[in-house]
TrEMBL record:
The keyword Ribonucleoprotein does not apply. GO terms for molecular function: DNA binding; transposase activity. This is Mutator family transposase. Residues 54-91 are annotated as: Disordered. The keyword DNA-binding applies. It comes from Nitrosomonas mobilis. Residues 68-80 have a biased composition (Basic and acidic residues). The lineage of its organism: Bacteria, Pseudomonadati, Pseudomonadota, Betaproteobacteria, Nitrosomonadales. Required for the transposition of the insertion element. Keywords: DNA recombination, DNA-binding, Transposable element, Transposition.
Length: 91
């Protein structure tokens, strides 16, 4: 399996299977926007896991008793337009 830096080729090829023209990547709710949303939300999940010291659904082990407390919705605005994301909360 060929890779591009850290991404396996099949990971790239699968979402591009229906690609025919640039609009398929860049138009509203298309691949680039979906990937950006997924990456940002995954990073936020990893960040809160590191902050809390335990994975989701694990026993709270930090001395403050701080734990996940649902999600809130935010909208990122950038060159790609508006991107609604879910931000994990803690208490």
């Amino acid at each position: 399996m060929t890779t591009h830096k850290f991404l396996p080729t099949d990971l790239i090829d699968s979402p591009l299977a229906d690609y025919r023209k640039p609009e398929h990547l860049t138009s509203e709710n298309r691949l680039l926007k979906q990937l950006t949303k997924a990456l940002v939300e995954r990073v936020l999940q990893a960040e809160i896991t590191e902050h809390l010291g335990h994975d989701k659904h694990e026993t709270v082990t930090n001395s403050t008793g701080n734990a996940r407390n649902d999600k809130s919705r935010k909208t990122l605005k950038g060159e790609f337009g508006e991107l609604p994301i879910e931000i994990p909360r803690d208490r």
